[in-house]
Amino acid sequence: MTDTNPYNPYNFAPLQSTGRNETDTANTYAPEDMIKIYEQQFLIPVPEEKLTEFLPALKSFYDIDDHTLDVSAIIFDAIADASIIYNHKIKVGDYQILGGLIEEAIEYDEDNKNDKDAEDKDIQAYTLDCKRTFFINEVEIPYHFNLFIYGDGYSTLTKKETVLEKMYWFVRGRFEESLLDDTEDNDSLDSINEQLASLGIREMDLTTIDEVISYVEDSIIDDAMVEALNKLLDAAE
């Protein structure tokens, strides 16, 4: 934060109000500007000793009240194309399918065959390299993963190259006992935060990283990507 303006020490974005509310107690703003006001509550770095001063300064700068802030949160949830996770803004970008479907051979236990095994043999399995772009505080970060498709189901295997991918393995290694032997290969929290800092992204604690990865896992495959995958599968049959 740079104190370049004594009247705007937190460098709030200049916004034009649309008028006053019905009781003439606060300014009103366009929906897109209400979103900017909401985001600044969380995204502007504030020294700990200034935390109690920050929110009153924001309300004074925009001449708004607590009700306006409540409304800004509702508008953000309704129309914003991003999420706020603690002090970070995260947004889903485009997907990219890298290459074509690779047919996989599934091994079955010939000594323990049953009717279900016979049915499963008619189901083809494929793998496909994919990428989804995410933005953390407007910084673009790719997320590569291998998609395994079997019948109506699928699973993903994340690579370990970008900082977002390393965050995934860091979280998974903390919660899955089956990976405990491999956690030495995972980046530490300090290492992850060093990599985030090199991208100009504020450091994250464990809770924030957990929430970010939960968001990523819920977002890597959307309806548009499912439609594209179905077209590939139809063409392969």
Write up what this structure looks like:
With 237 residues, this protein is an alpha+beta fold. It has eight helices and seven strands, in the order ββαααββαβββαααα. The chain has helices spanning 31-43, 51-62, 66-79, 115-120, 163-175, 189-198, 206-219, 223-236; strands at residues 19-20, 27-28, 83-85, 88-104, 125-136, 139-150, 153-158. A five-stranded antiparallel β-sheet has the order 3-4-5-6-7. It has a two-stranded antiparallel ribbon with strand order 1-2. A hairpin with a 6-residue loop joins strand 1 and strand 2. The mean pLDDT is 90.
Structure described in brief:
This protein is α+β, with helices and mostly antiparallel strands and 237 residues long.
